[in-house]
Amino acid sequence: MPLNIKNVLVCDAVDKSCVELLEEHGINVTYKLKLPVDELCKEVKNFDAAIVRSDTKITAEVLAAGAGSLKVVGRAGAGVDNIDVAAATAHNVVVLNTPGGNSISACELTCILIGALARPVVPAGQSMKEGRWDRKLYSGTELYGKTLAVLGLGRIGREVAIRMKTWGMRIIGYDPITTEAEAKAAGIEKLDLEQIWPLADYITVHTPLIPATRNLISTKSLAKCKQGVKVINVARGGIIDEQAVLDALQSGQCGGAAFDVFPEEPPKSQVTKALINHPKVVATPHLGASTAEAQVRVAVEVAEQFIALNGTSPKYTSYVGVINKEALAHYQ
Ligand SMILES: O=C(O)[C@H](O)COP(=O)(O)O
Questions:
Q1: pLDDT at res. 247
Q2: Are 255 and 146 contained in the same domain?
Q3: For residue 128, what are the domain limits?
Q4: Do 26 and 166 belong together in one domain?
Q5: What is the residue with the minimal CA distance to atom 10 of ligand 1?
Q6: Which residues form the D-isomer specific 2-hydroxyacid dehydrogenase NAD-binding domain (predicted)?
Q7: What is the pLDDT of residue 42?
Q8: Mean pLDDT (whole number) for 263-272
Q9: Atom of ligand 1 nearest to the CA of 12
């Protein structure tokens, strides 16, 4: 049975290609960005579907408010941790994402941040703007011959490995699911975490935030690393314990850190603020997927899946990003 999506509420800044494609297929689109939760609860009743990135939280409260009308929540991106998938399933709301649509962009930002930790381009560039010429202050280290540990060998982790290997880095990695052969194909030596800690010069995380990955990099694991190890998080806030990194930066156990994601966004806690302001930290405001190419890709992929769920075009038949098949079964 087709879902018959007629009216879509776009809650976060999604590329216009999504709207164009939906409208070409007879679906009305309304943009209401950054609604406070009470207004979102009022609005959601008037729509068959909503589209979000990571800013808008589709909580149990929002889903209860939309019960009876809301049928789909599309995530123009990968992580669905801002959507209460269990509550959505309970209300027969299909949750879908765009797997892989922004992987290359997230991967490239990771590689750029690794580079920015090796060569202090951020503070050096700032010093030039302030009129200084401090060549001695901003010396760096080569990446060539260093060891990069990739924790989480999904799409993004593997793409990072492939690129950084071409820079002459040794790539080691950990993932409980990826096989040794799959890792090898991306040039990665698959090891256990306990083997990884003392070998890594750089550690980058590419896992979802789940109980098993919360504080994966902690005071305990940092203590097992080489002195001066550098850490990068373009995945989710909370995978790297911020207080542990702050302490390790102060003791010299950690030689630098790059964060694109934070436990709370925008950050409010004193720990996160201290970390962002640390001279050895490069921080960016959740920009992993913020490229022209990725935003068109995820926008189009969401729209295509909505059209496929409506069953109105032979061109679009795949809804590969559906997370809760149980909710979809309700309509089939
Ligand atoms: O999960 C994702 O896809 C990324 O974190 C990007 O999030 P964004 O769409 O809010 O930029």
A1: 98
A2: yes
A3: 102-283
A4: no
A5: 54
A6: 113-288
A7: 97
A8: 97
A9: 10
Q: How far is CA 325 from CA 39, 52, 90, 309, 328, in A?
A: 29, 19, 12, 13, 5
Average pLDDT over residues 49-68: 97
* Rounded distance from Cα 77 to ligand 1 centre (Å): 5
Which region, left, alpha or beta, applies to residue 216 given φ > 0 means left and ψ of -120 to 50 means alpha?
alpha
Cα 117 to Cα 276: distance, rounded to the nearest angstrom: 14
- In sequence order, what are the beta bridge partners of 50? 9, 73
Q: Which residues line ligand 1 (CB under 6 A)?
A: 53-54, 77-79, 102, 286, 288-290
Q: What is the mean pLDDT of the chain?
A: 97
The average pLDDT across 248-277 equals 98
pLDDT band at 332 (very low <50, low <70, confident <90, very high): confident
Candidates 214, 265, 278, 330; catalytic one: 265
How many angstroms separate the CA atoms of 319 and 72, rounded? 12
The dihedrals phi and psi of 117, each to the nearest 5 degrees, come to: -80, -30
Percent share of the chain, pLDDT over 70: 100
Instruction: Indicate if 172 and 62 belong to the same structural domain.
Output: no
Catalytic option among 43, 286, 301, 304:
286
Q: What is the pLDDT of residue 54?
A: 95
Estimate the crossing angle of helix 121-129 against helix 103-118, to 10 degrees: 70
How many Cβ atoms are within 10 Å of 79's Cβ, its own excluded?
18
Would residue 1 count as lying in a domain?
Answer: no
Residue 2, in any domain of the structure: no
pLDDT at 174: 98
What pLDDT digit, counting tens, does each position of 18-42 carry? 999 999 999 999 999 999 999 999 9
CATH number of residue 212's parent domain? 3.40.50.720
Is residue 275 within 8 A of residue 288, CB to CB? The reply is no
**How do residues 286-296 score in pLDDT, each as one tens digit?**
999 999 999 99
Whether residue 208 is preceded by a cis peptide bond, meaning omega within 30 degrees of 0, is no
